[in-house]
Amino acid sequence: MSKWKHKHILDLASFSLEDYSSVMELSHRFRNQPLKGVRKLPALQGRLVSTLFFEPSTRTRSSFELAAKNLSADVQSFTPSTSSISKGESLIDTALTYVAMGADILIVRHNCANVPEQLANELDKTKTNTSILNAGDGLHSHPSQGLLDLYTLANHFKPEQPLPIALSGKRIVIVGDILHSRVARSNLWALTGCGADVILCGPSSLLPSCFSEFVSSPPPGISNDPVVNRGQISIKRDLDEALCDADAVMTLRLQKERMHENLITDLRRYHYEYGLTHERLKSCGKKIPVLHPGPANRGVEISSSLLEDRSICLIEEQVKNGISVRMAILYLVATGKGLTSK
Ligand code: NCD
Predict the structure, then answer these.
(1) 143-318 has which CATH code?
(2) Predicted structure pTM score
């Protein structure tokens, strides 16, 4: 039986190959679980999962809530606008209130980086067993999205065995607003952690030269990289060149709400230079899958017809897999163990 060592899941930079394997194995099990007419598995019966989202969300929140319900956990969700946050209550006091009500897992999204980590540190001081799962913090990290993208790609390349080895040596392009994307940052560590090479692509306003520090160094804040053979990271400005020998491409939305100034003034030109279309993919010679974490802006980072083309665009698969992957991480964190038998 494999032991799971992360009490909280705050980012993926600290994940080892074994951690990725545990998540992927279990996700695959949950995805293919014959439910025999029963929708729920009893694994987390009696556990309380609370979702604390201080930032909007369509997919992540519903997916976590559904995942928790599929495992028979009780689910409680928090809405900041109608809570005592509007009366000046602090974040930690809000979190402690949910802990006092018996929450076993708090799923936290916030627009400031490191809020989930700070809450985890504060909770640990109180000796509670409650776990924190980061559901997206500022520009920093979005671990569950990174894991579901990882699983989706592995399952695309090797459906019979979607494990890290399926990604080893693959070349994955991430294109678009990388500067503001926590999804890109989490994917960077997840993909290279499984031995894939990542090519970051975008104009210098959305992919500034400071990203080149990732090219040669271990993940920030990690002195001993838990991954021995990490894939390479490189930067390319020209999308057609980047796509030339790519095995998959992930495109990202322009996150206007996080831009202090309008970094892209001409959307038509941006689409021409960095937008994904059938024509652009055709010119790279082979059929490669397209990922998008959603929400998508049609006609900007991706054409409408490509977004809807399920033979190429895996956006629907990502949403579906998101539920099994989140079931896996809820299970691992709640029980502290991976698969017991094949
Ligand atoms: C992303 C996020 O919130 O970071 N969406 C998501 O969780 N699926 C990306 C985005 O907002 O563009």
Answers:
(1) 3.40.50.1370
(2) 0.95
Say yes or no: CB of residue 8 within 6 Å of ligand 1: no
Q: Alpha carbon of 98 to those of 49, 51, 93, 95, 115: distances in Å?
A: 10, 10, 9, 5, 16
Q: Is the CB of 145 under 6 A from ligand 1?
A: yes
C-alpha separations of 329 from 29, 64, 92, 191 in Å: 12, 10, 23, 17
Distances in Å between the alpha carbon of 264 and those of 111, 268, 270? Answer: 22, 10, 7
What is the Cα–Cα distance from 208 to 197, expressed in whole angstroms? Answer: 19
Is the CB of 186 within 6 Å of ligand 1? no
**How is the chain split into domains, by residue range?**
17-141+319-335, 143-318
Q: Report the C-alpha gap between 69 and 71 in whole angstroms.
A: 5
Give the residue ranges of DSSP H helices in the chain. 17-31, 59-70, 91-100, 115-125, 143-157, 182-193, 213-216, 239-243, 267-274, 278-283, 304-308, 315-335
142 lines ligand 1 (CB under 6 A): yes
The CA distances from residue 223 to 13, 100, 186, 217, 218, in Å, are: 11, 35, 18, 10, 8
Find the distance separating the first CA and the last CA of the chain, reported in whole Å.
10
Write the pLDDT tens digit of every residue in 209-252.
Answer: 888 877 777 788 788 899 999 999 999 999 999 999 999 999 99
Indicate if 143-318 has the same CATH topology as 17-141+319-335: yes
CA distance 77 to 54: 11
Say what the pLDDT of residue 256 is: 85
CATH tag, 17-141+319-335: 3.40.50.1370
Which of 51, 58, 60 for mutating ligand 1's site (highest number of atoms within 8 Å of CB)? 60
- Could you tell me the distance, in angstroms and rounded to a whole number, from the CA of residue 267 to the centre of ligand 1? 20
Is residue 253 within 6 Å of ligand 1 at its C-beta?
yes
